[in-house]
Design a protein that fits this description.
By secondary structure, the chain is of the alpha/beta class. It is built from 12 helices and 15 strands. The strands form 3 sheets. It has a 6-stranded mixed beta sheet, with no helix packed on it. 43% of the residues are buried. Bound molecules: manganese (II) ion. The site of manganese (II) ion (MN) has 7 residues, from loops.
């Protein structure tokens, strides 16, 4: 018999009802203290069951809103939902890295899992490199679970992570993943043949390791090269990316995995964009976070979240730097209201400091 730590087990409550109650509670109290281990394990089991039949590559349609790394920042996640709407009002795709770094990996992952259970066709979850045991053993999640619920539940999580898909195609022309592209891919057939890796070894090889780990580079690297900074996977330059996209008939690659000052960052003539949703990353980066919207006509826009920080004499410099960064991001804005921006700030293409974003080109 499993021991209940805390909380009520309602007799006759379905898993769906439990998931909804957990969502409501998390949004209100930002904590799971009122739920016992058995209830959390019930959600993990149902999540695994829901994910299991999904292929390694998802097909989703737009309009859709895309999240990059969240890294245990529950407050930021809820601020985005407050700004753009909650599931199932909006369709969401999450590019992974739910856990580690931030302090609420348990709450973030369970909130997303509960949404996946409640709205499996509206909430789509991909796997990031931190949803691999060798990462989340070391970068915060294991320690957090040991403190909050015990390491047995941390181990149970890994079976759920193993069932997360690795990439998603939005319509026919946008491909999304956590890390990047791979030289182990020559056609859509490679994606259809791809299996979700379920051991540490298979996570670290083939197409899957690059989908979770690869990075684009501005260095004089046109093809693929060893990713020496991460000591795993590859970096790729514009030529490698262009060739990959031409073969697959793609117009845009959307990926996460790297912190970005503005929360998002285009490269290579807007063929690839990095979306990073964790503002004030690791508590010492002054970055904004952002999420990306794809409209029904493939127009791209972003909602940017400023990092929040209370100014004290000790951190005055950091706060000032954050303000400057944010002013720079908004500098070219024609919006007369820009001085009155609330958090978070929806940024339409015309407000961006660079020339306006072109809708992704769609060839029929
Ligand atoms: Mn990552």
């Amino acid at each position: 018999m499993m021991k209940s730590r805390k909380g009520d087990v309602f007799e006759g409550e379905t898993v769906d009802q439990l998931a909804q109650r957990m969502i409501d509670h998390l949004l209100k109290w930002r904590s799971l203290d009122a739920f016992c281990d058995k209830q959390l394990l019930t959600i993990l089991e149902k999540t695994e069951f829901t994910l299991k039949p999904l292929p390694a590559m998802l097909q989703v349609e737009h309009p859709i809103t895309i999240f990059g790394d969240i890294h245990g920042q529950l407050d930021a996640l809820i601020r985005y939902f407050d700004a753009v709407g909650y599931p199932p009002k909006v369709q969401f795709l999450f590019l992974g890295d739910y856990v580690d770094r931030g302090g609420k990996s348990l709450e973030v992952s369970l909130l997303l899992f509960c949404y996946k259970i409640r709205y499996p066709h509206v909430v789509h979850l991909l796997r990031g490199n931190h949803e691999c045991m060798k990462m989340n053993r070391l970068y915060g999640f294991h320690e957090e679970m040991a403190r909050k619920r015990g390491t047995a539940m941390w181990r149970r999580y890994q079976y759920v992570f193993n069932e997360l898909p690795l990439c998603a195609r939005v319509g026919q022309r946008i491909l999304c993943m956590h890390g990047g592209i791979s030289q182990n891919c020559t056609s859509w057939e490679s994606f259809r043949a791809l299996k979700k890796p379920n051991t540490p070894k298979t996570c670290d090889e083939g197409l899957q390791v690059d989908l979770m780990w690869a990075d684009p580079t501005q260095d004089k690297c046109n093809a693929f090269a060893i990713n020496s900074q991460r000591a795993i996977s590859v970096i790729f330059g514009e030529q490698a990316l262009t060739e990959f996209m031409r073969k697959l008939g793609l117009s845009l690659i959307v990926r996460a995995h790297e912190v970005s000052q503005d929360g998002f960052n285009f490269m290579f003539n807007r063929k690839i964009v990095t979306v990073f949703s964790a503002p004030y990353y690791c508590g010492n980066d002054t970055n904004c976070g952002a999420i990306m919207h794809v409209s029904p006509s493939y127009e791209i826009s972003f909602t940017v979240l400023r990092p929040r920080m209370i100014a004290t004499p000790e951190n005055a410099e950091v706060v000032k730097q954050m303000e400057n960064n944010y002013q720079a991001l908004m500098a070219a804005s024609p919006d007369p209201n820009r001085g009155r921006h609330l958090n978070p700030v929806p940024v339409s293409p015309s407000q961006l400091p660079q020339p306006s974003l072109q809708p992704v080109e769609i060839k029929k």
